[in-house]
Amino acid sequence: MSAARELGAYWPGDSPVHRARLRVKAVAMVLVSIAAVLARDPVSALVLLAAVLLVAGLSRVPARRVLAPVRAGWLILLIIGAYQVLAGGGSTASVAQAVAVVAVLLAAMTAAQLLTATTPTGRLLDGVVTAVRPLRRLGADPDRFALTTLIVLRSITWIAGAFDDARDAAVARGLQHSIRARTLPVILRTVDHAQRTGLALAARGLGDPEPDESSPTDRT
Hints:
The structure is a single chain. The protein has 220 residues and is mainly alpha-helical. The chain folds into two domains: 4-119, no CATH class; 134-203, no CATH class. The protein is 71% helix and 0% strand. It is globular.
């Protein structure tokens, strides 16, 4: 399975991290994100990353699965780090800044992946509904919000699979260097997938709400 396909995928287990309440894990992830923003030096950033990796080890989720975001986005991380060094003229301070930036990104990405890898999708969506419920007074629909979240999570892995299939097909046809051969099928399949998803939702009465018949309308 490719790294992109493993993003947001649940890994069954009975570790302390799996058994932890969703509220605790969500708060921990938010705190990691806040700490990542506040970390300014490489030492703090590396300590934060080490703490996240320690929790990942306690989860007993395979390292390959926990580090899926890193494996999928390593090139972007490399570019970000290189930019930090080049922007600072290659000085020691710029290298330290690059280490800090990449480390906090790794910590945040790993924490988010760890949350989804140790939480069943149904439980995660129940948590989303609970979190959004106070916004019902403002017109928000918790169930619809949770459904949207589920569609996004599933679409990420589906699109990742479409890219893998397009790449394999291009290689089989000797077109591995053709951007068109590797992207056009993905675009077409994604549009078709979106249309079929929309039709399925509409068939279940989950599409756009019907206009209120009691509201005033223009009459001719």
